Amino acid sequence: MKSFPRLPMSIVCAVMVATLSYTIQRLVDAQNEPPMGTVLLQASIPYYWRIAMSTLHALAAGILVYTLSPKRNVNIVPMVWCLSFVFLVCIASLIAIP
Amino acid sequence: MNPFFYEICTRIHGHIAILGLAVLLHPILSLPKQQRLRRGTKWSIWLSMLFVLCAYAMGLWLYPEYRSAIKPRLIADHIAMAYMFERKEHLAFLCCFSVLGGGLLSLFFDGSQSRTVARVLLLWGWICGVLVAGMGILVAAA
User: How far is A80 from chain B, CA to nearest CA, in Å?
Assistant: First the structure.
C-alpha cells in the first residue's frame, strides 16, 4: 500500500466518471432515437448536451471523492486496471453502437 | 459559414489534432524514465494539452455547420461515413478528457504513483486520438 493523495485520486475519478457518463448517455440515446437519415435537424444538439452533462457529472464526482475520501493511502494497482477496463469497455461500446 | 472557410477550418482542426498526438507521444515514452519532470517533458505535456484542447474546441465550433451542411449529403451518399463521424466525435470527447486529466496529474503531482496513473491516462488518450484521427481521415476522404 503506497500513498496516493486525495486530489490526484479525485482527478482520476472525475475522468472515469466523465467517460462512463458519456458512454451511458450515448447508449441510452441510441436505444430511443430514430435511425439516422429520418431526422436531419433537431432544435438542440444532443452532442453538446451529453458533453455538458458528462462534465457536470465529472465535476460532482471529483468534488465528492475529494471531500468524502477518508483514507490517505490507496492501493494504486486496482485503480490503474479499473481505469484501463473502463476505457476499453467504453471505446468498444462507442465504436459498436455509434 | 462560407464553404471555403469551413474547409480551411476543418483542415486546420485536423492538423492541430495530429500535431497534438505527435507531441503527446513524448511524455508517454519519457515519463517512466524520470524521477523529476524535465523541462522538455513539461513543455511537451503543456503543448499536447493545448493542441488537443484547441483541436477539440475547434471541432465543437464546426459541429453545427457539419450538421446542417455536410451531414445530410453524407447520409445520402455515404451513410457508413456518417456513422463513422459520430464514432469519431464520441472518441474525441474521451481523448480530450483523458489527456487533460493525465496532463494535470503529471504536471502538478510528483511521485511515481501519480506518474503511473498519469501515463495510463495519457496512453488511453493517445489511443482514442489515433482512432479519431484515422476515422477523421476516412470521413474527409469521403
Answer: 6
Which one of B60, B97, B120 makes the best mutation probe of the A interface by having the most chain A beta carbons within 10 Å?
B97
Print burial letters for B22-60: b (CB count within 10 Å at least 16), e (below 16). Answer: ebbebbbeebeeeeebeeebeebbebbbebbbbbbebbb
Chain B residue nearest residue A2, CA to CA: B113
Here the cell at position A82 is 479499473
Say which of B67, B101, B127 has its CB closest to residue A15: B101
Burial track A68-87 (b if 16+ CB lie within 10 A, e otherwise):
eeeeeebebeebbeebeebb
Reply yes or no on whether the pLDDT at A63 is more than 80. Answer: yes
Q: What are the grid coordinates assigned to B95, written together? A: 481523448
- Name B140's Cβ contacts closer than 8 Å, sequence gap at least 6: B10, B14
Partner-chain residue, chosen from B76, B83, B104, that has the shortest CB–CB distance to A98:
B83
* Chain A partners within 8 Å of B94 (Cβ): 19, 22, 87, 90-91, 94
Q: How confident is the model at residue B33 (pLDDT cuts 50, 70, 90)?
A: confident
Whether complex ipTM tops 0.85 = yes
Could you tell me the pTM of the whole model? Answer: 0.90
